[in-house]
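Re: weekly structure request thread

Next one in the queue (301 aa):
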Amino acid sequence: MTNHSAHDHTNHNGHQGHGEHTGHESHGGHAGHAGHGGTRPGGLSVSENGYTLEFHSTILPAGVQTVSFRVTGPDGRAVTAFVPEHEKELHFIAVRRDTAGFQHVHPVRDEKGTWSVELALEPGDWRFFTDIHPAGHDGTMTLGIDVAVAGPYDPRPLPEVDRTARVGEYTVVLDGGLVPGEASALTLTVSRNGHPVTDLEPYLAAYGHLVALRVGDLGYLHVHPEGEPGDGTTAPGPEIAFMAVAPSAGTYRLYLDFQHDGSVRTAEFTVRTTAPSPGPDAAAQAASGHGSHHHGAHAHH
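Done, posted below.
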């Protein structure tokens, strides 16, 4: 898979799972997630709150592969009861550590608690994420694990910062930015062949789903869509609005899933955080003449 700025899932052989591309950046269902306050991202640990992500193998061959795993609970047994989030019990993301090869799919679980999903894997170091809400637990958590895919590794440079992504006939423009420690608005506007798309299709209870990963450690951010289909106020395009909190300064990769004409597509962006706005205390100091410029001026007397 090439690391282009966006891709159309309908063109990838063996990516049947992409037809179920997801957004697990939920509305109310994710209110209990530890990463939501912006204090830390999710997915940096293989085990959390007694729940552990266990893969049958963390060394895989390249190509289209079926991978299997389970989530064990505090009792050491495979978990078989989950609270659905955005219409699915578990949301799965695979991405190579150079941020190439992004896939967002939905595994199938058997009665014993083993999940299976088909992925298209190129050689290299990968990070797999599972977004889950075990029954009886007080919220959603994201577990992550490193997986090695055998073969000659050809790492790709990080795509340049760009506010425009193209995927087939579609163009997606990003407005807004990520601010460390502060909630900020992100708006993505979808057009097709130069015309605004005003009939986006609901996909897993939203018109769009956004995943954000911090470059360097792939810390995982939940990003919340604003509004939902059928609420009487949210239009089906061309704009899709989100609120996000960056846990730290840095560079992030954004992956937007949207559905139109029966197909789910993903637009990809590279963004850098912007400086937080001055707080009210700093603004008051500046207004009263007690800011840094005032003191600097006195140094000349």
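Helices lie at 280-288, 292-298. The longest strand covers residues 63-72.
Next request, please.
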